[in-house]
C-alpha cells in the first residue's frame, strides 16, 4: 500500500517545536495553533502541515502527521487522517506524488487566508508588514524593532534554514524511489509474461501411430 520510503528517525526536539507551534515558519505555526485551539483547520492548511512534516521539510513518516491530526482534530476520523497523511506524504502507491508540493512559505501566500491566520494566531507578528510576514527573518532589523518583533527573540528563527534546498532534495529522493518501484513493477510483469505460454502456439503434432 505504501512505498518503503526511508523516512528519517524522529528527532524529539524537532517534533516538540512542531507541536508547540514554534517552527519559525509563521504560516505553519499559525496552522498548528488553530488546530490545537479549535480542533479544525482548512483543507489547504492540512495539506501544508502534512507536507511540512513529511516530504516537504522534516521527512518524517506520514504516521507522525496522522498522529498529530488524530490528537488534536475534532473529526477523530482515523481513516481520513491516515489516508490523507499517507496520500499527501507522497508514499502512497495509488498516487506517486501530490500535484502540488507545499512550501512552508510560498503555499501560504496564495489568497488572503495565510495573512489572516498569522495575524490572528501569532500576536507577535500582528503588526508585521505583509511583505515580510511569511519570512520575518528577511525583514531589516529596524523594521523588526519598529514592529516589536525581533526574530530569535520575540519570535523563533526558522528550524530549517535552507528550506527550499531541503524541499528539492526530499522530492528528488521520492522521485527516484518512485522510478525504482515502477521499474521493478515492469520487470516483474515482463518476467511473468515470459513464463506464460502463448495462447497462439499450437501443440506439436503427435508422432504416435
Short description:
By secondary structure, this protein is mostly helical. It is built from eight helices and no strands.
Note down, in words, how this protein is organized:
By secondary structure, the chain is mainly α. The protein has a single domain (12-181), classed as Orthogonal Bundle (DNA Cyclobutane Dipyrimidine Photolyase, subunit A, domain 3), CATH 1.10.579. The protein has 8 helices and no strands. The longest helix has 33 residues, at 163-195. The N and C termini lie far apart (56 Å). The mean pLDDT is 85. One of its GO terms (cellular component) is nucleus. Belongs to the DNA photolyase class-1 family. It holds the Pfam family FAD_binding_7. InterPro entries: Crypto/Photolyase_FAD-like_sf (IPR036134), Cryptochr/Photolyase_FAD-bd (IPR005101), Cryptochrome/DNA_photolyase_1 (IPR002081).
Spans of at least 5 consecutive residues whose pLDDT stays below 50 are none
CATH class: Mainly Alpha
Average pLDDT reading: 85
Question: Rough shape?
Answer: elongated
CATH superfamily: DNA Cyclobutane Dipyrimidine Photolyase, subunit A, domain 3
N-to-C span: 56 Å
β-strand percent reads under 5%
Order of helices and strands: HHHHHHHH
* Backbone CA Rg: 24 Å
CATH topology: DNA Cyclobutane Dipyrimidine Photolyase, subunit A, domain 3
How many independent structural domains? Answer: 1
- Give the oligomeric state of the chains in this entry, treating copies of one chain as homo and distinct chains as hetero: single chain
Individual helix count: 8
Number of strands: 0
Task: Provide the structure class.
Answer: mainly alpha
Amino acid at each position: 500500500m505504501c512505498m518503503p520510503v526511508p523516512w528519517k528517525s524522529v528527532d524529539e526536539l524537532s517534533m516538540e517545536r512542531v507541536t508547540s507551534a514554534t517552527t519559525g515558519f509563521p504560516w505553519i505555526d499559525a496552522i498548528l495553533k488553530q488546530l490545537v485551539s479549535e480542533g479544525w483547520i482548512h483543507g489547504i492548511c492540512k495539506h501544508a502541515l502534512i507536507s511540512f512534516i513529511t516530504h516537504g521539510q522534516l521527512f518524517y513518516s506520514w504516521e507522525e502527521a496522522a498522529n498529530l491530526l488524530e490528537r488534536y482534530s475534532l473529526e477523530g476520523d482515523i481513516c481520513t487522517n491516515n489516508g490523507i497523511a499517507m496520500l499527501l506524504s507522497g508514499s502512497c502507491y495509488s498516487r506517486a506524488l501530490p500535484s502540488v508540493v507545499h512550501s512552508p512559505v510560498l503555499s501560504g501566500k496564495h489568497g488572503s487566508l495565510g495573512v489572516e491566520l498569522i495575524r490572528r494566531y501569532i500576536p507577535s507578528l500582528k503588526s508585521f508588514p505583509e511583505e515580510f510576514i511569511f519570512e520575518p527573518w528577511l525583514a531589516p532589523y529596524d523594521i523588526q524593532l519598529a514592529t516589536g518583533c525581533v526574530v530569535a527573540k520575540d519570535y523563533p528563527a526558522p528550524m530549517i534554514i535552507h528550506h527550499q534546498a531541503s524541499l528539492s532534495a526530499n522530492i528528488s529522493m521520492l522521485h527516484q524511489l518512485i522510478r525504482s518501484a515502477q521499474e521493478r513493477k515492469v520487470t516483474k510483469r515482463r518476467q511473468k509474461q515470459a513464463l506464460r505460454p502463448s495462447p497462439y502456439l499450437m501443440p506439436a503434432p503427435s508422432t504416435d501411430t
